[in-house]
C-alpha cells in the first residue's frame, strides 16, 4: 500500500510505532505475570516452609552467618542507606545514622553477643508435685514469619524485626512500606545480595500485595503501623490462629512541671519531636501538658532552642525531615486550618506544599475536641495544653487511648512515682523523650490501642520463639498412689504431698492420718 | 438479648472499680487469693460432688487434677505475689550515666476468662488466679456443659470474692457471643480451635490481646523398653494418662500411641493386664473412670468406631452404655490413618496404637500432623530424647510420664500452631495478665550537646562513639585526637 514514493522516515515511524505497540502489550503481559497475587504468596510461603523444615535456619551457625552479613551490609552500604532515607523523607544524614543505621547495628551486635546464651535451654526447678524430675524450657523457632514494616523509619522498622526473626531461627518474609519506595527497593537489593534467599525474602508492594500475603498461614506476624490496619492484620491472622505483634501508635503526652531545668527540657522535647523525623514517629511527643503560669516560659524556651537547632527559617533547614507525602501533608494542614485551632498558633504555622515542609508549629490551649487533639498528629505540630494543677494531666491523658509512650519532665520524686503508678502506656520516660527505646534490656511494645506484644533485644528473640516446656521423669520411684484402684489411704497421701507438709506425708505413708 | 444492657452496666461498674485503683493494692490481691483458697478448701466436698454430677469424676481425680493443683497454685501465688509485683531492673551500660531503667508490671484492666467443661474448676480458676494476682478485674464464663460446677463457681465466687471486681456469667453460646461483643483488655480462652478462631476474630474490634489454650492429637511414643519395671510403669502411666484423666477428655490426654511393630503385642498385652488390675473386670462398676460429658460427645465417639475398618482394629474394650454415657477403656491397633479417629482429636477413652518399623519414624509421623499441645515419649534412649525435642514442635514434651507437666509451676503451659498461643501457670499466669511497662528515668545533669541539631560532623562522630559505648573513643574525639572515619564525610551534612 505504501508506494515506493512514501518517504523512508514515514516507513520508519510506522515500523517504530508497531514495535512500540507490540512491546507495550508484552510489557503489560509480563507486568501482569509479575503481579504478586495470592498464588505467588502461597508459593512463596510453601517454599520457605520447605526450607525451614529442612532445619537449616535452626543452627547457631546459620543465624550467626546472617547476622554477620547484616553487619557487613551496614558497613558497606551505609551511604546507600542514608541516601535512600534522604530520598524518601529528606531525612538528614545525621538522623538517618543515629536513629536507623546505628540502631540496627546495635541490635545486630547485641544478638551476636548474646545469641549463644539466648539459645541455651532454661533449666528450671521442679517441686515435690513432680518429684523426681528435671525440667527445662527450650526456645524453638516458630517457622515462617511475616514482618510488615512502615514508612517513617523504613530501614530500622524493617531490619530490627528481621534480626529478631533470624536470631530466633525462623525463615522470614519482609514487606516494606511502599510509601518509602527508595528504601523499599534498596532493601530488596541488599537482602538479596547479603542474606540467604532460601530463608529471607522481601516482597514489595502496596495493598494488593499485603492482602495476598495476609491470606497465607504464617507462624507469626509482626506489624508496625496504624491501629486501623493493625485490625486488618489481626483479623487475617485469626483465620489461621497466627499470633501477632502489633506495634501501633497513639498520642504520646509529655507532662512538664515547672521545677525543671527549662533549657534541657526544651531541647529534649525538640529532640523528641522535630528532630525525630519531624514528629512523624510513633513515639514522638504528640502534645504537652503544663501549668498555666509556666506555659509562656516553656514556649519561649522552645522558641529559643528551635532557633538554635534549625536556624531562623526552620522550614528551610536541612536538619529536619520533610513530610513524607502529599496525603500526609494535606492531613496535617487540615489539622492546622480547623477554625478552633488556626487562631491558637503561637509559633510557626508556615507550610510549603511544593517542598512538603511544615515549620515547627506550637499551638496553645486548643479545645479538647479539636481534631488535632483527637487523632495522632504524626507531624511537626505541638499542642500545649495548660492546667491549673499538674494532677489535672491524669484526666486528660486517661481520656485518650493508652499511648505507646508517656513522658514526664520534673524533679519531684512524688510526681514521678504517681505518674508511673497512674498512667498506663507502652513505655515511659522521665526527663527525656524517645531515647528509652534505645535502652538495652527493655521491651518495646504497646498496650491497648497502642498495640500488643513487644520486641527489641532478647524480647525479639523470645517473641519469635516458642518456649517449649520439657519435663524429664524417670521410671524409678513410682508411687502406686497415683493409680487406681483409689483407696482412702492413697487419697490421704496425695493430699499430704500436695500440701507439701513433710509430717503429713510421713503420717499418711505410715497410714496414721 | 435482654442481657445486654445489664451486662454493659455491670462491666462499666467493674471498669470504674478498677479505675479506683483498689485492685492494684497488694493487700486486695492477697485477700482475693486467700478467698479463693478458702472457697476451695471449705467447699471441697461440694466441688467433688459437682464434678461427680457433671462428669462422673472420681474424687481422687477431682483432688489430684483440680482441687489439689489449685491449692498448690494459690499457695505459690500468695508466697510469690510481692516478688511478682516488684519491677525488674534492667542493667544498663556505664555510659548511661545517671539513668535507671526497669520493667514495671501493671494490670491490663478488665479481662474475660472463658473456660471449658472437662476441668471446670481448674480451667476457670487457674487463669483467674493469674488475673487477680496481676491486679485485674475479671469476668469468668464457665462452660454450660458442666452446669453443676458452673453454678457452684458462681455461688462460690459471689460468696468468697469481691463482687465488684470478679463476676461469673453463666450461659451458653449466646451469652458467650454477647460477652465477646464487649470491650476487654484481655481474653483468656480454653477450648477448641474452632471457637478459638471466633474468639480471636471478636477480639480484633478492640485490639484485645488473647491467649488461646487449644488442643490437638497428643501422641505418646513408646520405645521398646527392655526392663519389665520400665514397661510396667510406662503402661500404668499411659492408662492413667488416657483413661484415668477425665476418660481421655483432656487437651493433654494421650490421644494415640506410636510403637515399633515388634513391640506392639507386648504393649497391648500389658495394657490389658493393667487395665484389669486398675479397673477390675467391669470398669463401669468400679466408678473410677469419668463418663462422657453429654450425648453429643457420646455420639461423636460412637461414630468414630462406626467405620468398619476401625471397628475391626479394636483389640480390647469397645462396649458403650448410651444411657449412662459410659465408654469402657478401648484399645485399637492400626486403624486406617484416614479415618476420623486418626484425623480428629479423639477426646475420649479410645486409644489407637499405630505401629512403625523403627521408633525414630515416629518423628516424621508426628510432624505430618498439626502441632499438638503435648508430646509424650517413653524412652531411656537419650539420642531419641534429644531428637524428639529438636525435631518436633509442640506445646510441651514430657519424657516417661503423661499429664504431670500440668502440675509443674516453673514450666509454661501453652500451645503452638494449632494448639494455641500464649501460656500460663505459675508466674506465667501473672505475666499473661500483665503489661510489662518499660520505665526509664534520666537526669537533667547529663545532657550531651551533640544530640541536638544543627548537625555537624563532629557531633556525628561523638554520637557514634557514645552509641558504641566507647569511652576511650569519646575522650579522644573530645580532645580532637580521633580522625573521623571516611564514611562520615558526606555532602548532606
Automatic annotation (TrEMBL), chain A:
Keyword set includes DNA repair: no
Domain of life: Eukaryota
Signal peptide: 1-27
Pfam families per record: Aldedh
Domain Aldehyde dehydrogenase residues, every copy: 39-470
Active site: 247, 282
InterPro entries, sorted: Ald_DH/histidinol_DH, Ald_DH_C, Ald_DH_N, Aldehyde_DH_dom, Aldehyde_DH_NAD(P)
Catalytic activity: an aldehyde + NAD(+) + H2O = a carboxylate + NADH + 2 H(+)
Keyword terms, alphabetized: NAD, Oxidoreductase, Signal
UniProt keyword annotation of Oxidoreductase present: yes
MF-aspect GO terms: aldehyde dehydrogenase (NAD+) activity
GO BP terms, alphabetized: response to abscisic acid; response to water deprivation
Protein family according to the UniProt entry: Belongs to the aldehyde dehydrogenase family.
Protein name stated in the entry: Aldehyde dehydrogenase
Organism: Flemingia macrophylla
TrEMBL record, chain B:
Reaction(s) the record says it catalyses: an aldehyde + NAD(+) + H2O = a carboxylate + NADH + 2 H(+)
Record's keyword terms, sorted: NAD, Oxidoreductase
Domain named Aldehyde dehydrogenase: residues: 20-439
Molecular functions (GO terms): aldehyde dehydrogenase (NAD+) activity
Pfam families for the chain: Aldedh
BP terms from Gene Ontology: response to abscisic acid; response to water deprivation
Active site: 213, 251
PANTHER family assigned to the protein according to its UniProt record, in alphabetical order: ALDEHYDE DEHYDROGENASE
Family: Belongs to the aldehyde dehydrogenase family.
Name of the protein this chain belongs to: Aldehyde dehydrogenase
Organism: Flemingia macrophylla
Amino acid at each position: 500500500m505504501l508506494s515506493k514514493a512514501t518517504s523512508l522516515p514515514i516507513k520508519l515511524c510506522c515500523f517504530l510505532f508497531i514495535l512500540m505497540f507490540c512491546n507495550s502489550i508484552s510489557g503489560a503481559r509480563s507486568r501482569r505475570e509479575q503481579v504478586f497475587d495470592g498464588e505467588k504468596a502461597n508459593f512463596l510461603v510453601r517454599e520457605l516452609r520447605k526450607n525451614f523444615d529442612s532445619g537449616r535456619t535452626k543452627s547457631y551457625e546459620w543465624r550467626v552467618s546472617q547476622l554477620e552479613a547484616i553487619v557487613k551490609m551496614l558497613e558497606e552500604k551505609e551511604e546507600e542507606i542514608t541516601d535512600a532515607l534522604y530520598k524518601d523523607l529528606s531525612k538528614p544524614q545525621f538522623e538517618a545514622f543515629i536513629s536507623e543505621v546505628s540502631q540496627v547495628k546495635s541490635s545486630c551486635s547485641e544478638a551476636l553477643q548474646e545469641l549463644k546464651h539466648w539459645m541455651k535451654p532454661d533449666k528450671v526447678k521442679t517441686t515435690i508435685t513432680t518429684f523426681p524430675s528435671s525440667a527445662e524450657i527450650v526456645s524453638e523457632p516458630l517457622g515462617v514469619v511475616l514482618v510488615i514494616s512502615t514508612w517513617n523509619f523504613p530501614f530500622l522498622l524493617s531490619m530490627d524485626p528481621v534480626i529478631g526473626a533470624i536470631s530466633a531461627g525462623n525463615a522470614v518474609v519482609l514487606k516494606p512500606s511502599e510509601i518509602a519506595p527508595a528504601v523499599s527497593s534498596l532493601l530488596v537489593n541488599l537482602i538479596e545480595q547479603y542474606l540467604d534467599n532460601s530463608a529471607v525474602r522481601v516482597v514489595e508492594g502496596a495493598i494488593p500485595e499485603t492482602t495476598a500475603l495476609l491470606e497465607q498461614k504464617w507462624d507469626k506476624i509482626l506489624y508496625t503501623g496504624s491501629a486501623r490496619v493493625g485490625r486488618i492484620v489481626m483479623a487475617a491472622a485469626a483465620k489461621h490462629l497466627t499470633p501477632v505483634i502489633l506495634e501501633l501508635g497513639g498520642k504520646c503526652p509529655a507532662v512538664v512541671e515547672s521545677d525543671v531545668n527549662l533549657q534541657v527540657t526544651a531541647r529534649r522535647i525538640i529532640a523528641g519531636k522535630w528532630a525525630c523525623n519531624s514528629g512523624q514517629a510513633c513515639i514522638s511527643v504528640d502534645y504537652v501538658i503544663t501549668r498555666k503560669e509556666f506555659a509562656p516560659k516553656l514556649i519561649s524556651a522552645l522558641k529559643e532552642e528551635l532557633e538554635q537547632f534549625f536556624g531562623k527559617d526552620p522550614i528551610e533547614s536541612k536538619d529536619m525531615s520533610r513530610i513524607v507525602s502529599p496525603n500526609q501533608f494535606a492531613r496535617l494542614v487540615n489539622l492546622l486550618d480547623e477554625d478552633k485551632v488556626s487562631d491558637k498558633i503561637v509559633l510557626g504555622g508556615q507550610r510549603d506544599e511544593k517542598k512538603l515542609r511544615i515549620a515547627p508549629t506550637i499551638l496553645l490551649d486548643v479545645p479538647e475536641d479539636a481534631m488535632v487533639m483527637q487523632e495522632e498528629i504524626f507531624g511537626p505540630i505541638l499542642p500545649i495544653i495548660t492546667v491549673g494543677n499538674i494532677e489535672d494531666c491524669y484526666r486528660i491523658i486517661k481520656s485518650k487511648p493508652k499511648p505507646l509512650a508517656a513522658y514526664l519532665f520534673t524533679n519531684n520524686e512524688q510526681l514521678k512515682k504517681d505518674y508511673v503508678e497512674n498512667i498506663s502506656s507502652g513505655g515511659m520516660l522521665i526527663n527525656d523523650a524517645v531515647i528509652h527505646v534505645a535502652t538495652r534490656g527493655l521491651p518495646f511494645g504497646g498496650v491497648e490501642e497502642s498495640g500488643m506484644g513487644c520486641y527489641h533485644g532478647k524480647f525479639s528473640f523470645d517473641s519469635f520463639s516458642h518456649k517449649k516446656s520439657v519435663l524429664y521423669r524417670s521410671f524409678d520411684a513410682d508411687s502406686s498412689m497415683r493409680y487406681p484402684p483409689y483407696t482412702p489411704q492413697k487419697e490421704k497421701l496425695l493430699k499430704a504431698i500436695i500440701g507439701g507438709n513433710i509430717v503429713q506425708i510421713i503420717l499418711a505413708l505410715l497410714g496414721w492420718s | 438479648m435482654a442481657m445486654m444492657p445489664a451486662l454493659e452496666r455491670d462491666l462499666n461498674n467493674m471498669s470504674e472499680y478498677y479505675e479506683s485503683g483498689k485492685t492494684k493494692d497488694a493487700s486486695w490481691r492477697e485477700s482475693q487469693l486467700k478467698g479463693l483458697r478458702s472457697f476451695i478448701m471449705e467447699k471441697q466436698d461440694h466441688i467433688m460432688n459437682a464434678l461427680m454430677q457433671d462428669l462422673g469424676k472420681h474424687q481422687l481425680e477431682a483432688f489430684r487434677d483440680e482441687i489439689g493443683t489449685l491449692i498448690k497454685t494459690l499457695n505459690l501465688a500468695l508466697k510469690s505475689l510481692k516478688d511478682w509485683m516488684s519491677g525488674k531492673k534492667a542493667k544498663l551500660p556505664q555510659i548511661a550515666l545517671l539513668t535507671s531503667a526497669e520493667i514495671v508490671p501493671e494490670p491490663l484492666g478488665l479481662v474475660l476468662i472463658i473456660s471449658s467443661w472437662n476441668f471446670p474448676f481448674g480451667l476457670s480458676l487457674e487463669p483467674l488466679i493469674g488475673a487477680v494476682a496481676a491486679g485485674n478485674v475479671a469476668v469468668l464464663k464457665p462452660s454450660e456443659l458442666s452446669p453443676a460446677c458452673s453454678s457452684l463457681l458462681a455461688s462460690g465466687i459471689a460468696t468468697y470474692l469481691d463482687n465488684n471486681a470478679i463476676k461469673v456469667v453463666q450461659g451458653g453460646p449466646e451469652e458467650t457471643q454477647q460477652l465477646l461483643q464487649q470491650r476487654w483488655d484481655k481474653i483468656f480462652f480454653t477450648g477448641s480451635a474452632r471457637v478459638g478462631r471466633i474468639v480471636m476474630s471478636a477480639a480484633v474490634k478492640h485490639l484485645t490481646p488473647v491467649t488461646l489454650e487449644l488442643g490437638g492429637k497428643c501422641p505418646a511414643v513408646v520405645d521398646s523398653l527392655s526392663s519389665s519395671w520400665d514397661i510396667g510403669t510406662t503402661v500404668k502411666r499411659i492408662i492413667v494418662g488416657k483413661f484415668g484423666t477425665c476418660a481421655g477428655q483432656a487437651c493433654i490426654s494421650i490421644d494415640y500411641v506410636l510403637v515399633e511393630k515388634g513391640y506392639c503385642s507386648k504393649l497391648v498385652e500389658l495394657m490389658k493386664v493393667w487395665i484389669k488390675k486398675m479397673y477390675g473386670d467391669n470398669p463401669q462398676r468400679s466408678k473410677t473412670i469419668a463418663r462422657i460429658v453429654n450425648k453429643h460427645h457420646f455420639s461423636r465417639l460412637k461414630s468414630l468406631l462406626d467405620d468398619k475398618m476401625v471397628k475391626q482394629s479394636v483389640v480390647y474394650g469397645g462396649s458403650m452404655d448410651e444411657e449412662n454415657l459410659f465408654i469402657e477403656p478401648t484399645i485399637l491397633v492400626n486403624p486406617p490413618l484416614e479415618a476420623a479417629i486418626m484425623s480428629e482429636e479423639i477426646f475420649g477413652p479410645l486409644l489407637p496404637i499405630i505401629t512403625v518399623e523403627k521408633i525414630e519414624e515416629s518423628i516424621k509421623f508426628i510432624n505430618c500432623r498439626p502441632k499438638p499441645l503435648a508430646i509424650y515419649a517413653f524412652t531411656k534412649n537419650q539420642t531419641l530424647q534429644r531428637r524428639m525435642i529438636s525435631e518436633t514442635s509442640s506445646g510441651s514434651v514430657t519424657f516417661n510420664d503423661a499429664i504431670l507437666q500440668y502440675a509443674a509451676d516453673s514450666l509454661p503451659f501453652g500451645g503452638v500452631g494449632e494448639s494455641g498461643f500464649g501460656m500460663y501457670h505459675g508466674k506465667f499466669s501473672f505475666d499473661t495478665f500483665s503489661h510489662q511497662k518499660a520505665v526509664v528515668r534520666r537526669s537533667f545533669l547529663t545532657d550531651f550537646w551533640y544530640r541536638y541539631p544543627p548537625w555537624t560532623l563532629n557531633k556525628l562522630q561523638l554520637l557514634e562513639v557514645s552509641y558504641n559505648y566507647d569511652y576511650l573513643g569519646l575522650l579522644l574525639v573530645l580532645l580532637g585526637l580521633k580522625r573521623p572515619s571516611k564514611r562520615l564525610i558526606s555532602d548532606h551534612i
